[in-house]
Amino acid sequence: MTSLTVHSSTAMVAAVVGVAVLGGLLFVLGFNVSRMRGVTAKAGGSQQPTDPASPLLIAQRAHGNASEYVPYLAVLFLVVGIGSPAGVAIPLIVGATLARLMHAYGMLSSDSLAHQSLVGVVGAMGTYLFGLALAVAAAFTLA
Hints:
Layout: H1 9-42, H2 55-83, H3 86-108, H4 118-140
């Protein structure tokens, strides 16, 4: 049986900061959905929009997408922050955090979900790449 070795307190600080930033992002995006529900209700709009240009739908999808990735990234941040050297953990945690922030910004600044912004695409691709790298690094914490 292998044991987990704690490599760096600096990496763990980066992990906790990354978790806090992404947790904050998730709640800010959730608040934005509630805010947009109120704005839409006052205007007499649908609470279940299907128009890709609907600000409420854009807010819902930005929050929903973050909800799909942030929890697992948080777990990976903590595992990698505990068990990987700082030189591995910190760039992966920072990269994944920036990718999620870029993706949310790209979605919210878009006029329509039908048109992807470059910032959003880069954020999405960064999420996939950094997420996969974090998963591999997490697996190596047992080595």
